Amino acid sequence: MRGKVKRFWAVFSLALLVGIFCRVPPVEARNDYEVLWHETYAFGSVNGGSLVDVTPDGETIVAGHTYFGWFSSFLIFETDENGTLKWNRTLAYSDVAYAVKALPNGDILAIGYDYGFMGLSPDSLTISRFDSEGNDLEHYYYPMPDTNVVLDAIITPGEEVILVGKIQTYGGKEVPEEDVWILKLDKNASVKLSKTYDISQGDVAHAVALASNGDIIVAGESGNDYIMDFLVLRLDENGNLKWQKTFDKDNEDIAYAVATAPNGDIVVAGQTTNGEENDVLVIRLDSSGNIIWQKQFGESGEDGIYSITVLPSGDIVVAGYTNSVSASDMDAWILVLGRSGSVKWDYTYDGGSYDVARFVDVAPNGNVVVVGWSSDNILLMAIKPPQQELIPLPEPQRRVTLLTTLSKLWTHWFFKYYDRFDELYATALELGVDNETLENALNLHNEAIALLQDGWGKDNLDEIRIIFWTRMTPFPKLYKIREAYLLEKEAITLLVNATERLQTF
């Protein structure tokens, strides 16, 4: 036994030295989110930015619409990483934008919608391909039935197009029956999938996202007679239903945005009524649709949500509008949440009139890019997340040894905090710490355990403890193990601070 203890402390000491000489940063070394720049753009009389995507080299592609006279035209333009306009194009055959994606070869794929002219021609979806300079290489049409409405679209890595919305059927009734509708097209507008889903009288899909395994996540609303609930569906790549969930806060609740987290969780955002006004509601689900947490944001005014994304760090960025949070008129609102749903940062943009943040994306360098509109102009901004110094990669021949050593170090410190959790949690519960703090701490604790098990490829913590006493160890996922340590530390810190405050008083 003594030999095993010596061997562990030898590994621990080596890891400590490696940490010193590789300048492993303290976990507290963070700064705040920072708005790098914001710009507005005008091309016609009224302009709106609906979507944004960032190319691998940092250029920003924006898609939206602009009005010349009474008619809207599809608009697409590109800026450099500082917001300087490089080119812009409008399309005569399409009116508004639904999706845009920068492709690895430099081309750009965009989904638009053409409204039929005064009933003389049908509405159509448009799929357009541009080169890196915005030249229209090819485009295709998909005629839209009158009963179908498209509300969101995404472009997959395989250049397929997934659209969601609703299909309306009257069936002799005054109020139409609405079902969720999903359509998948290839890049040439050929149909690969078209399905409907009937949950209640009124079912509408407002948003769609793609899971890492190819599953399709749909979010929207379901209900009857103006009493609506959040609706979330998980489908396989062929549209077969895996599960469906509705979430009710006893109000009119509608989901308008959905995204997936790096660990497979699903975050859904929308609106819930607060008296005569609306608040933002964000719900985090596990991959099976079970609620991890739900949070409501907003005050006495009108607050809304259009887009949500999850950063590599795990932070959640919500984009929308508010006139209740430091807002005079309607202001664009960027809200950043931690993994447990607590507010880490919020920012309002006031251009002097009606301002909205419509879509949010993450650039390859980690910056957050937001597009929307300010009065009659398109609004574009870049936000820099807090920076954490990265551990320098060692030489290839030393990488396995160093990664294993560092992983064992962080696992050791994880267990230092983990072994205190149950006692601290019981103390906090006995002292009457508020339920939200207890829930946040428990969620962080459980997520940390899952990350550590995934990082070591083990099913339980006892197997991981044994790793310290073995010569041969599995190749670890360092970033997940370090993240597990950070989350467990955050959980302990929450409980310690909460109990100390109560004991002080």
UniProtKB/TrEMBL annotation:
Source organism per UniProt: Thermococcus aggregans
SUPFAM superfamilies: Quinoprotein alcohol dehydrogenase-like
Name of this protein: PQQ-binding-like beta-propeller repeat protein
Gene3D superfamilies, per database record: 2.80.10.50
